[in-house]
Amino acid sequence: METQLKGVRTANTAVQPAVRPKRKSVNKFVTISLFLAPAIIVYVFYVLYPIFSTLLYSFYKWDGVGAGTYVGLQNYVNLLKDNVFWTSLTNNTWVILTSIFVQIPLGLIMALMLLAPIRGIRLFSGVYFFPFLISTVAVGLLWVLMLDPLNGIINRLVSVFGFENVEWLSQSHTAMFAVLLVIVWQFSPFYMILFKAAIVGIPEELYEAAEIDGANAFTKFFRITLPLLMPTIVSSSILAIVGSLKAFDIFYVMTGGGPNHGTELLGTYMFKQAFVNFNMGYASAIAFVMFFLAMIVTILIQALDFYRKKKGAYA
């Protein structure tokens, strides 16, 4: 009898260690789920739900008030035939190109200037970053006054050099250039901060070793600084592209999309279709195209960066 009891106790002690790890794993999963639940709920209701709602509304002809009429893909078909849509997409492309090939390089140059061994140069850090701290609406109104064809300071400077006043925001061939100039002025400091933080994180030992090998400043930049800044450049490119596709406020304040749709963007055109023409279904189609383009471009950039890293790892 005692032998049987000992056998039962031994079996129970052997089972208990197998049960405890399962309970620990379950408790760990529950704990992690509870901590993640608030973020997941917010993400679902404020990100995923609006995306799928926009996609759903894009299949309807709807004024935003009454019951909508299902039209299938007709809104997307109308988009392909809409000249204003293609003009807006072209203007967004110009904003993207300006952001990537002007803002990001300018931000890098400004960051290098702030880190240069020049006495007093760091005092300009706040001056460079100041435009980014101003509200975009305030920036737009400020530049509208500065670009005024009669009393604006820009035209006064132009007249000093003997040129005639230019109606910067009233002509199609100058309005887009003027707004792009303002965008560069305001958002380049943002990339300056990103690059400055990334450059500070590069180990000094790499530069010291390069100096011992006789490398000059250009060699150190192209062989050390620029390769190590690639993750920051990729992140900056994604932010620039997504931000350019979502651009709205500065264009709406300065030109309202005019003249003659010369500065119309997908964002301003979507706003007009939704809240001026009350064509919510068509506006939803434009919004979903904006989301789709941003997603595709982001995936492409991430894929190219992954390929670059993989190629470098096996080079």
Summarize this entry quickly.
InterPro entries: ABC_transporter_permease (IPR051393), MetI-like (IPR000515), MetI-like_sf (IPR035906). This protein is an all-alpha fold. The chain contains 13 helices and 2 strands; from the N terminus they run αββαααααααααααα.
List the helices and strands and how they pair.
Layout: H1 2-57, E1 60-61, E2 69-70, H2 74-81, H3 83-114, H4 124-133, H5 136-146, H6 153-160, H7 172-200, H8 204-212, H9 217-228, H10 230-245, H11 249-254, H12 266-275, H13 280-313
Antiparallel strand pairs: 1-2
Helix pairs in contact: 1-13, 2-13, 3-7, 3-10, 4-7, 10-13, 12-13
Key phrases:
mainly alpha; MetI-like fold; two-stranded antiparallel sheet; 315 residues
Oligomeric state: single chain
Strand portion, in percent?
Answer: under 5%
Give a quick account of the main beta sheet: strands, pairing sense, barrel closure: 2 strands, antiparallel
Looking at CATH, which topology of the domain at 88-278 would you report? MetI-like fold
Strand order of the largest sheet: 1-2
Q: Quick one: CATH superfamily of the domain at 88-278?
A: MetI-like
The helix/strand order is: HEEHHHHHHHHHHHH
Shape: flat
Ranges with pLDDT <50 over ≥5 residues?
none
Radius of gyration: 28 Å
What is the CA–CA distance across the termini?
A: 72 Å
Average pLDDT figure: 87
CATH class call of the domain at 88-278:
Mainly Alpha
Count the strands? 2
Briefly note the structural class of the backbone: mainly alpha
Number of discrete helical segments? 13
What's the helical proportion of residues? over 70%
CATH arch. level architecture of the domain at 88-278:
Orthogonal Bundle
